[in-house]
Amino acid sequence: MRALQTAATGMMAQELNVQVISNNIANQRTTGYKRQRAQFQDLMYETQRRPGSATSDQGNQVPAGITIGSGVKTASTPRAMSQGPLNPTEKDYDVAIRGEGFFRIRRPDGTIAYTRDGSFELDSQGQLVTADGYLVEPGITVPQNASKVTINAQGQIQATIPGQTQPQDLGQLQLARFVNKVGLESIGDNLFVETPASGQPIDGTAGSEGFGTLQQAYLEEANVNAVTEISALIAAQRAYEMNARIITAADQMLSSTTQMFRG
């Protein structure tokens, strides 16, 4: 019976939907995380009577045909790249992006990755790095005797050096944005990499046209709303249960048919 297979596709789709929702809830405290949602498409149809088919030699046509669907499939799991709330941390090397843009991160193999996670630290050479020790582009080194480091809204980094009356410029953080940021590929560790779908990165500085500004001593929280996720979870659970009931009903119908033949 076709209903068994159709309902099975619905159950598998809702199972994936629950997996996406559970990942969102698990990452609601992950810095810079962007929530995902599952999108679905209907599968192919079997057309038993095409709309507009002629019913007589006089040109009469049926207003609606007969088509039977074969279920549902997962189309994509795009990320919502909306701004997450900013949370104060009181750490000089924590930086949040308010608006468009990603930090540029150099991975150990030399390739560039992108992140919204601005929880940076200093390594043993005084270089600004991520929690995994990856270098933050374009490579900022803070002197060991620096007493105070400031990062302004445009990403310019300055440090107060003993014996100097004016703060010393250490460099400027670079940002990147994409024509289709939803097309970025997540590789874990709060990092994204470009893909043909995202387009090539557009590099720039914070505060310039098309780019957001920076906020020192703040971090961007995940844009996950726990209430929304729980509501979506309940809806997915009910959809799963309804598909399971269809399978139960189809099984009972097949059982009745089998008993009729036996009788």
TrEMBL record:
Domain Flagellar basal-body/hook protein C-terminal: 215-260
Natural source organism: Chelatococcus albus
Domain Flagellar hook protein FlgE/F/G-like D1: 96-159
UniProt name for this protein: Flagellar basal-body rod protein FlgG
Pfam family, one: Flg_bb_rod
Similarity annotation: Belongs to the flagella basal body rod proteins family.
Keyword line: Bacterial flagellum, Cell projection, Cilium, Flagellum
NCBIfam families linked to this entry: FlgEFG_subfam (TIGR03506), flgG_G_neg (TIGR02488)
UniProt key word Thylakoid: no
SUPFAM superfamilies cross-referenced by the UniProt entry: Flagellar hook protein flgE (SSF117143)
InterPro entries: Flag_bb_rod_N (IPR001444), Flagellar_basal_body_rod_CS (IPR019776), Flagellar_FlgE/F/G (IPR020013), Flg_bb/hook_C_dom (IPR010930), FlgE/F/G-like (IPR037925), FlgG_G_neg (IPR012834), LlgE_F_G-like_D1 (IPR053967)
Residue stretches of biased makeup (Polar residues): 73-86
UniProt key word Cell membrane: no
Region (Disordered): 70-91
